[in-house]
Amino acid sequence: LTRLKEGNSRFVADVRGIDAMASNAKRSALVDGQEPSAIILGCSDSRVPAELVFDQGLGDLFVIRVAGNVVAPSQVGSVEFAAEQFGTRLVVVMGHTMCGAVTATVDALMTPSGGGSPNLRSIVDRISPSVQGRNDRDELLLQAGRANFRVSVDHLRHGSGLLESLVEKNGLRIVGAEYCLESGKVDFFEVPGDLD
């Protein structure tokens, strides 16, 4: 976590660390295997590439990207795979400000139409339980992103027997984070109470 925080500080300061530089030697060294220091479950938004945001290089992060950083069985399986296969002991669920998937969910809740692609609707359906109960659109948009990654963190912490076991027996940490598009800064939320 310290490594990610330091990398994000470099990113915000527009300074690039030497370890993040891609090189043929680094690429060649990774052919036989990988030992990523963190698993990042983040949004597919093109403005939020985890390797850049955390100033990391080849082999440093195991990144899973899906619109709205939702947790579905394939994402849980990907996190389980990396945590078990590579012994990675940190999972970060990273949302971001002004997320299009979260905005689409808020709009669908405010003015339900029932239309659209069933596949896109599945993303909205996964996000909507975490943001229901608020009536003001601006308030919804403000709170929805954090509510969404809070639900995802909770799902990973308590929805997978394998991950629960790794948390209990091997020290796996699962934390939430929010990337600010405006500043480039990532705020971390390490314990459930931090997410409220």
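[next item in queue]
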Amino acid sequence: LKTPAHIISLKRIKELKGIRLDSHHTVISAMMTMDEILNAPELSRNHSVVKTVAQNIATTQIRNMATIGGNISSRYTWAEFYNCLLALDAKLNFLIQPKKNITVSMDEFLSKNAKISGILTSISLENKKDTVAVYRRVPRCSDVDIPLIAVCVKAEMQDRTFKEVRVVVNQGTSFPKRDKRIESMLDGKTIT
């Protein structure tokens, strides 16, 4: 009953492919596959956690086809990139009408149940010096590759002290949320 009469592929739209860098931002186009993300040297310096998330998704065959835009647009509460992009304070760029673009934060996107009318064109990440981020997940079971719990932590490091800490937790049954109690506990702590 839900089979569409027509399917439109975005695969050959070159503007939806690639990674662009400038001194302040890294912009990942929505049609970048997980495999392309894994092999993108542009992400190694500032956003290697994005590569970690891509590595965790499914199998090699799926990573060759699945895109970051598809993962974000899937609206599954356990989608892998939600945690990472919320922790990195990503901005999502959508084409709403011909020649009309809007940008929303990942936080705003998730607060709207991952629903925005339009086509996700790219994800913008701020390049911040001395920022570290880690992502860990525990799979639900060996038969289904859905995280039981996933956590992403991002912090700026200044003189061995945590600053601007973001801790995002997803237990898979609802969209991920920041844990502000843990953030405030870690913010300002010095590593010994």
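[queue empty]
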